[in-house]
Amino acid sequence: MNLFEFPWLEMAIAISVAGIPLISWAERPIGWTIGLCTLVLICVGMECGLHHADIIDMDDHRVAEWLDVDILSAPVLPVVALLHLLVALMVPRIHATNAFCSSICLSMGLQLATFGCTEPSLLVLLLIAGALPPLWEMWRNNRHPQLYLLHMIPFAVFLLSGWFADELEMKRLAIACWMIAALIRSGTFPAHAWVPSLFETSNFGTSILFVVPMVGFYAALRMVLPMDPPEWILQLMGAFSLLTAILSSGLAVVQQDARKMFARLVLSHTAMTFVGLELLTPLSLTGSLAHWLSSAISLCGLGLVLWSLEARFGSLDISQHRGLYSKAPVMGAFLLLMGLASVGFPGTIGFASSELLIDGAVTDNVLAGLVVVISSLLNGIAIMRMYFLLFTGKQHSSVVSLGVTPRERFAVGLLTLVIFGAGIQPQIVLASRHRAAHLIVDELERDHPVDPHHDDRVSAAGKSVGTSHGSVDD
Amino acid sequence: MIDPVELLAYLATVIIAAPLLLVLLLGSLAIIGTIPSERCTTRLVQGLIGISFLATVAATGIMILYGIPRKSVILSDWIILGHDYHFVLKILLDPLSIVFALLTFVLCTTIGSFVSRYMHKEPGFYRFFVLFAIFVLGMLAASLADTIETLFFGWELVGLSSALLIAFFQERPAPARSALWVWVIYRFADAALLLAAVTLHHMTGEGDFDRLLGTASWPSSSGIPHTGSASFLVGLLLIVAAAGKSGLVPFSGWLPRAMEGPTPSSAVFYGALSVHLGVFLLLRMGPFLSESWGLTIIVLVIGISTALFASLASSVQTDIKSVLAFASLAQVGLIVTEIGCGLRWLPLFHLVGHACLRTLQFLRAPSMLQDHQKIENAIGGTGPGSLSGWFPAHYAPWIYRLAFDRGSLDDMLWKGLCRPVISLLEWFNRLDEQWMRFLGGEDSPDDLPLTRITTDTLNAAISSAPSFDDTRQ
Question: Most exposed residue of A50, B40, B291, B424, measured as fewest CB within 10 angstroms of its CB?
Fold first, then answer.
């Protein structure tokens, strides 16, 4: 077996799973965690790089047949591995316990399996299993999981109901159940309360890893879209997503606590990602898929910077000026960088994806485009407000050094490279997302041919496909 | 023999690449924690901006020598997504862009030189130059842009550097509050420009200016006439964007707040370049706007009202930078009026002259009081009063008060728009937290029973003072 035939994704998942007991007993868990996450990132990078290069058909060398890397998941897997590595790099020493480090590995293994899985039945089980790490941590730390369970139990119930409905060939019921499950998991209004609560009660790193990768969006892509949902379901999803986006951005502006503000930002960005899904045109889908990646990376960075600041200065109250700049100037720059990247500032990873999302939204639904623009506007105001309140004002006094550590500097440097690299040269990522968007639309047209007179949406999506684009993986 | 067109393309790339390299270099050094000395920083800034400046001068020379009135250079086919989307980074060398770019270089090199002495040994020396570099890149990108998306790129960079420089003296909360208010106005203007860009993209298939305005050299237009409600909406959005960025009525309240920043940044931003960026947008899109009588009238009304308001306000201010800010705004209002009258070259020359004069005045602002004392000693008394004798005695106090309160424009925006929105959001936030506590099984004595969420509660929330940061000085 040569390097090209090696089952890299299976290896990555195996390393993650094997790391759980290993790190539970390790003396220096954080070092082991960083090492394992790096290995996993390399494995996943090899898998996706070989897939992108189209060197060989990776399906021939799968050990686990339920795993499949296609154009939709290919860039997402390395991003997920990167997020876990970044959390491991930036975890404050006080939180770097054996239990937390093991949970990073558990989360990484589950998420890689989830994002690599295309089999709906197994995906249901993986999604339910993915909801367990935060619960385990809440129980370990004697926190109240009531609010979390109030949402995750219905999430699991709807997933399983959809599965049964699918088995019984009750397609519409399956679509509805899975759509509701995806929306709950994404924190869409009115099932949003668990997200701010999770950030308030849980370890910041665990919350970031659970929420920021936007697993609910992936579930909607894999499970709902291929079944050609009726237009009213997509419109309902779109309406709730738009409401969530604008409400969350507005609430982010008036928060008095940095964690709550961050939670609202995440909700807003997740909701905006669903907007393109509702419109179901190649351009809007490309915008959504690109926005998914850019938001995940930049929000993870923003969250990690806030976590580092919390470790130094305690709870980040943003009801008054804190004057932290004199003690942590580099953190201020990092926070601004990550925050502006998340709102699509020019030159950063989010700019091109925001442009596409807005462009795609405005084409088909002016109201959707307006809501996305207003949400971005409010998110930008929230970011700057947070920066000014945290870093300006009477100088914070401290007798100990609060500067950035080498680990943190490396992590944020890596993020900066990704943010600006993809920002300055977004073509590679966007072209891949565009191919994935066309794949989705083409498959919809092929598997569910419609009478153009009766389904304007799909026929419009089909008409917007010019020539056949990119590689179709099957 | 070198092809002049090829050489122009190469020089155009250097014009943008040099400041971009400067930003990346200064930013990278800050991230890795290696802050160079003041001398090194100054030399770096001078060197790279100097290269860009020389490239601009060379390009200008070639265009004049070879009689090339206009040259569009594609920097990069930045995003190509089949037939679905195309985003090209293009810059345009024509009389308007070159004049504005040269003005940017002249004033920025002057300010850079001033700052290297004025801010010697200041703790934020390096930070100032990082933001300054971002500003220069933004101004060049905006002034040389050949697509509305490229212009938006520079527009945002200018806005960010502006807000962060207003909050430069960050030990005091007041500059930060002013910076946040300015940022809010800028975001609003950015949103308007973004919507205009997206709509234009769909009207013409691209955001290129030559599709909108034709390929004739500025200020001529040979484009297809754009009429209809979509074009009117786009024009309106562009006017709103320009008004926000340049502090035209009704957004004029932010300009005196922006004086919280260091004097050099006030000079280059609000005396010279940033405050004229909205005017530049109107000049660039002039042929598009002038196709609609409605838009032309709106531009005229905004220009005249800004000029009148700012003249009144400047004559009653009590600190020199506010006086200069409003004086600057009055001239900007006049320039906008000239654009509304269909003139193109006059506003451009007016802009250049005004920018240079105002930069000088701002830089001399710290010495202004001394200058006034010398003048008063020489003439043996004070000068004429500001508003005395201009208005009937019955109305003078009212007009004085209106001018002194700066037209209460900020108040109107705050009370009419921001406070109700913030109050509503805070009310939603209280409801949301109450909902979370209810679901989580926690009780709070402050919770209202959900059944009592009535109109009275809503009214009480809206009429109460907001707990949002007070952005007013």
Answer: B40
